[in-house]
Amino acid sequence: MKSIQIYAIAIACVVTAAAVCTYIVLSDNESAAEEFIVDAAGNEIGIPNSIGSITAASPSIADIVCYMGYGSKIVAVSTSCTHPDIPSGTPTVGSYTNPSTDGISTANADVTFIDGSNTNAVNAYNTLRSAGMRVIMMFGSRDTADGIYKNVEIIGKVMKDTSWEGIVTDLKAEVALLKEITANAPTTRILLSTGLGTLTTNSSGDFTDLTGFTGAGVYLAGIDSAVMSMVSGVSKMTTPVSGSGWTAADTDFISTSTGNVDMLIVLWTNKPAMPNSTAIASLIDKMQGMASWGNCGAVKNGNIVFIGGDAGSDLSRVTPYTVYNGLTLMSLYVNPGCYSLTSGGAPLTLSSLPQCVDSNLTTLVGYTKNKAA
Description:
single chain, 373 residues, Rossmann fold, 14 helices
């Protein structure tokens, strides 16, 4: 009788073990994953041994994925993604502020990265996660440079790529170096604008609506905004604009609060062309005659800089390119006296730098490798 009982117990153990194995095979991807990571929402996300496809639901995320060498794995992106390593014809899944859950589900990538900067994106993340998709919330622009470091780490761990550690080390070193070089520079007062209202250019760089330009409808970055926080980390600057975001500046504010501003920087992205020198001169002349902008110190002195193309994108996103291009460029323009055309040469001045930054980005960034005498 004892032998029969032992035999029955052995059979039960085999059946139980089989049931456990069946559970592991049939459970969701997170249960079967080898490792877990913690995303920006604080959730543990299971990661399989291999990732073959990626949905990058924000331009910043797509840029980091491509920077780390995985652009060919992208099968869906948000609108405004521009990195050249994104495969041609890749479908879009809404904007990064309002991602399409249907589009992301249709793409059905092995992993989906979502920017957690706003409510719509968070809602999409929760919906997709509840549906069983492997979706990872990433750090957003409000997390500034730390968000860049953390996002590089997350993507590195997801892709089982330890190079993320060296990338983060190098990024931190670049920020520290820029800060060190500008530590004793005089403070520059700046305004950073997303544009000048509805003002635009044609393909020749002429302003198409300068006659009707009133100076209204201009959005400026607040001193505590993500971009200003990052810029102040690599240069000596301040701004009269308060707040942690971009706000519409009324003409009264411009007239009464910008008299001591040294420089107006305009992000000139998504425009047909950068303004030409004649157009800029005409704009400055018109602004100097306005009751509002005519009182701005930067306008009085003609110190207006337009940043477009890749430079504008790099400054408005949170990626390694933001550090190496966007912030480095801002350090050059905000504290030009710290840099030179040649190593140990004469200090640069704002007037010696071009008023438009676009295809000359690489040359300008190169100046920051030359510490002035």
